[in-house]
Design goal:
Strand content: 25-35%
Oligomer: single chain
Number of helices: 6
Distance between the termini: 12 Å
Shape: globular
CATH superfamily: Endonuclease/exonuclease/phosphatase
CATH class: Alpha Beta
Order of helices and strands: EEEHHEHEEEEEHEHEHEEE
Low-confidence stretches: 1-27
CATH topology: Deoxyribonuclease I, Chain A
CATH architecture: 4-Layer Sandwich
Strand order of the largest sheet: 1-2-13-14-3-4-6-5
Number of domains: 1
Helix content: 10-25%
Radius of gyration: 18 Å
Length: 306
């Protein structure tokens, strides 16, 4: 595989394009473009200021111009032909619909029970124009023993002969790089979450279905030699690529915590054909009103090997 890197620091994005082999003759390839986006305590506009942690305790609530910027990000995702977006830190359906309109996107919101103190849910939105038929599975809740931690939304997408399983996650923070067996309690919790995820992934591998896990892993999976990344089952393809650094907010962060991870079924390869980090095109002072995470977009092909 050869890599071509193009860089653009304007309002658009930093782009990394990976060119892989063409589909083998006679083998229908499955191809999908997926994004992940943590929108940082994204509320419905009702009592947002009292929601615990929301935009620094309500000190940086979004105004009309901020929502316009966020809607422009969604337009950018459409321009990139994004078909599926895994979302994190959304309060409810009304919040999601502030920027993902109903006529353009089908919404699947986490079933996690919340109250004004705990407004973080995950969700998946599927672009209607992409033509996917969606089957929803029960949320993955086993990594939430108290019911208060963020559940995983789990979908199967079908389009003709193509079929892809998509899961969005938002894992425990506070153990970005430490050993998972560290005495730090948050590392123990994250270790449990990874164990649940691996069990879920082994089921998908047994089903021979292409799979993408998109989300805020709260782990530096792209740091070379990361223990958690090395422990993923099968031939996991982790994007961003190991060793890459975020461009979000002019490189404010040293490592990615958001990742798109793909798993190919037996007899097929997963081929990344494009990756992009979508920047906000706003001054760093807007970070607390927009999000401290930039959306990541990747196109995966699941193809028979040459």
């Amino acid at each position: 595989m050869r890599a071509v890197k193009r860089s653009c620091r304007s309002a658009a994005a930093l782009v990394l394009v990976l060119l892989g082999p063409a589909p083998a003759a006679g083998q229908p390839a499955t191809r999908i473009t997926v994004a992940t986006w943590n929108i940082a305590w994204f509320g419905d506009g009702i009592r947002d200021g009292v929601l615990r942690g929301n935009q620094r305790g309500g000190r940086f609530l979004r105004d009309g111009a901020d929502f316009e910027r966020l809607r422009s990000v969604v337009s950018r995702l459409v321009d990139l032909d994004v078909e599926v977006v895994g979302l994190q830190e959304v309060e409810n359906a009304a919040a999601v619909r502030r920027i993902f309109p109903r006529d353009g996107w089908e919404l699947f919101l986490s079933t996690r029970e919340t109250d004004p103190e705990w407004s973080q849910r995950t969700a998946i939105v599927v672009r209607r124009a992409a033509g996917w038929r969606v089957e929803r599975h029960p949320d993955v809740v086993e990594w939430s023993p108290q019911g208060r931690d963020r559940h995983g939304v789990d979908l199967t997408l079908t389009r003709g002969e193509e079929r892809v399983r998509v899961l969005t996650v938002h894992f425990q923070s506070g153990c970005n790089a430490q050993p998972l067996r560290s005495p730090e309690p948050r590392c123990g919790f994250l270790r449990m979450q990874f164990a649940v995820l691996k069990g879920w992934l082994f089921e998908r591998i047994a089903e021979d279905v292409p799979t993408v896990v998109a989300g805020d892993w709260n782990r530096f999976l792209s740091r070379p030699g990361d223990e958690a990344a090395a422990g993923l089952p099968g031939e996991a393809l982790v994007l961003p690529s190991p060793g890459s650094a975020p461009a979000c907010w002019d490189g404010f962060f040293d490592h990615y915590v958001d990742h798109l991870v793909a798993f190919a079924p037996r007899g097929r390869d997963v081929v990344p054909t494009a990756f992009e980090e979508v920047l906000y095109g706003a001054p760093r002072s807007a970070r607390d009103r927009l999000s401290d995470h930039c959306p990541l977009v990747a196109t995966f092909g699941f193809e028979a090997p040459n």
